[in-house]
């Protein structure tokens, strides 16, 4: 077997670690919130804005930075993004000032925008054409790993040694990752001058359907996922949140494995199947929340369906974007983070107005247009 027929796994695993660091940096404050609140001398609601500020940093800068750095070599840009994590997490670990900490979190969000816009495209370029989807799936494994293993580990470390130690470890991981990328990841060129401008990418056939699906699917998922503890408490499972999230994480890993095995041959059927699985899960949670067994079954289906969605959407955006693939990825990252922020706000409004049982119904309702757009984008978008 020639070198063009295999995946560069060492390089791809370093990108997986970059995805892991990105997600863990974003979500870690949720696991150490009480200690972070006390350490900064603010309330928990104020400390919780560390997640919001991070998302804003990503959403506001991903597209402008993609345009400004389009001609940079990909490796140089990736190293800059990871270095941003190292600096931001170090400042967060050492800072006793709330404003400085929020500024560091914004910088971390900017770094995330840089890294997220790069990862899928970089993975595609490192892999032979017939294995590009599988390469992206390997990199996206960093997401459920961070959520199912990284957050619990960071929370445990924060409780054992203090919340600052958790961010300090994140800085150390970022420094090690810088060395790993430097030695193991081949460089790739940026765009040649004169390529498609960022906003003109919207005119490329297939890009808009992928972005619409990203926005609505992530919004739907976030409405329930953000308030899953509240929903479970209402269902009489408030003491099983950690177990439920573990089941979701394991099922997500299985979903990524399935997508990685088949995405290069069946992207469209996998996207339809993923949407249906999450919709069935939402219907089960809406109709049978009183049955603990069916709740676990629904969460398993939810994880199986959702686990591969980031890989499917990143691959679809890259395929549709063509020469403007990096621009399409930057737009996807922006809409993804905007949908996460909107999902948190919408969930709060729904909770006050209609109660926690409105979450699965909302998820189910929003997935109907998602399924319609995926089904309609047969020629472009979800081929």
TrEMBL record:
Annotated membrane topology: Multi-pass membrane protein
MF terms (GO), sorted A to Z: transmembrane transporter activity
Domain Major facilitator superfamily (MFS) profile: 11-383
CDD domains referenced in this protein's UniProt entry, alphabetically: MFS_NepI_like
Transmembrane regions: 51-70, 77-96, 102-123, 135-157, 163-181, 202-223, 243-263, 270-288, 294-318, 330-351, 357-377
Top-level taxon: Bacteria
Example of a GO cellular component annotation carried by this entry: plasma membrane
SUPFAM superfamilies: MFS general substrate transporter
Keyword field: Cell membrane, Membrane, Transmembrane, Transmembrane helix
Protein name (database record): Predicted arabinose efflux permease, MFS family
Taxonomic path: Bacteria, Bacillati, Actinomycetota, Actinomycetes, Pseudonocardiales
